[in-house]
Amino acid sequence: MDSPLVHRMQGFGSTIFAEMSGLAVEHGALNLGQGFPDTDGPQEVLDAAKAAIDGGRNQYPPGPGVPELLDAIAVHQKRFYGLDLDPRREVLVTVGATEAIAATILALCETGDEVVTFEPYYDSYAASIALAGAVRRTSVLRFPDFAVDEESLRAAFSSRTRLVLLNTPHNPTGKVFTRAELDLICSLAREHDAWVVTDEVYEHLVFDGLEHVPVATLPGMAERTLTISSAGKTFSTTGWKVGWVSGPAEAVAAVRTVKQFLTYVGSGPFQPAVAVGLGLGDDVYAGLSRSLQAKRDVLVTALRDIGLDVSVPGGTYFVIADAAPLGATDALEFCRELPGRAGVAGVPVSVFHDDADAARTLVRFAFCKQDDVLREAAVRLSALRA
Q: pLDDT per residue over 220-237, tens digit each?
């Protein structure tokens, strides 16, 4: 029999992350493909989760989220960005940012509505847009600087544009959108009366003195912006799947209507632990960023030392390199062979593109790993150069 999978999801098989992580396991390779840290986050956060479990907080949490986490998210947005939120009406806890993205698109898009996003894009964006029966319209960010192409971006908008899906700091490129670029995006959203949905999960992982600018802080944007983030990247707890969405009460209510029929609730004892994390001091947040910046520098230096052209990321967990000097002509095939040939796993950037030729030989490597792992990966890759 043919696959019973609905037409709009044809083409969405196993994710590239599952495939490359599977190959890493099969070959005993260092996994620089999937973006998870190989060390734990702040001890205070881990201890709070243990205390919540021991304290019996193991049943369904309230649908919108536990009160202390809702409060902590609101305080966090005020503390870092000056945004005033009603934690009971303008914040919703989700099972990671991935669910927040899916629930938001499903809540806001009718069949045939258009969603503007940048490519390369995180793979769940395309799937969520397809699930909603919406249409993906993209503007390409090109290696090595990944600057916004104004002409291309303007062309992506139309009378059917319903929302803009923006990720900053950006996965997979590591780009931190500038204020001027954000102003352009916002002006087009206002012109076309579109919502802006911002995925800001890497908000605290910004390097070199760059500034993360939440779209909701820009003039005239708070009333048309839904902001998404999570604890996974900030506190190195990717397996906990605690995310959230915040914004205008009526929009958050719409997302909540959809979300309750997806997972209903989740991550019960981890929610109060994340509330503790959000209240940690500025030194903790700064330390997380400094640590990752140093890891970035280790990997960037190592990749350059073996002759690769590298785009230095301004944030996130990831660096993109052109693998052509290692013999790559097709990054997907190169990455499928890499764990067996060199004992390292990466991810081909082309799978995040509609225009695969824009990233034909580009590979994303994750640097959220221990320094000795990063150095060993570089040694193994250098063997390919030889």
A: 999 999 999 999 999 999
Tokens 């005993």 — which residue?
28
CA distances from 248 to 32, 86, 93, 252, 261 (A): 38, 9, 15, 6, 21
| pLDDT tens per residue, range 37-89 | 999 999 999 999 999 999 999 999 999 999 999 999 999 999 999 999 999 99
Question: Token pair for residue 297?
Answer: 């520098």
The structure's pTM equals 0.96
What stretches of the chain show up as alpha helix (H) in DSSP? Answer: 16-27, 43-54, 67-81, 96-108, 123-131, 150-156, 179-191, 249-259, 270-278, 282-305, 331-342, 371-385
User: With DSSP H G I counted as helix, E B as strand and the rest as coil, what are the percentages for the chain, rounded to 5?
Assistant: 45, 15, 40
User: What's the pLDDT at 386?
Assistant: 63
Q: Measured between alpha carbons, how far is residue 380 from residues 158, 174, 275, 285 in Å?
A: 48, 24, 41, 33
Q: Which two tokens stand for residue 276?
A: 């503790």
Structure tokens at 41: 């986050």
Identify the residue whose tokens are 């052109």.
322
Q: How many angstroms separate the CA atoms of 223 and 244, rounded?
A: 17
Compute the mean pLDDT over every residue in the chain, rounded to the nearest whole number. 96
Q: List the structure tokens of 214.
A: 């939440």
CA angle 29, 30, 32 (to 5 degrees): 125
DSSP assignment of 29-84 equals -EE-SS---SS---HHHHHHHHHHHHTT--SPPPTT--HHHHHHHHHHHHHHH---
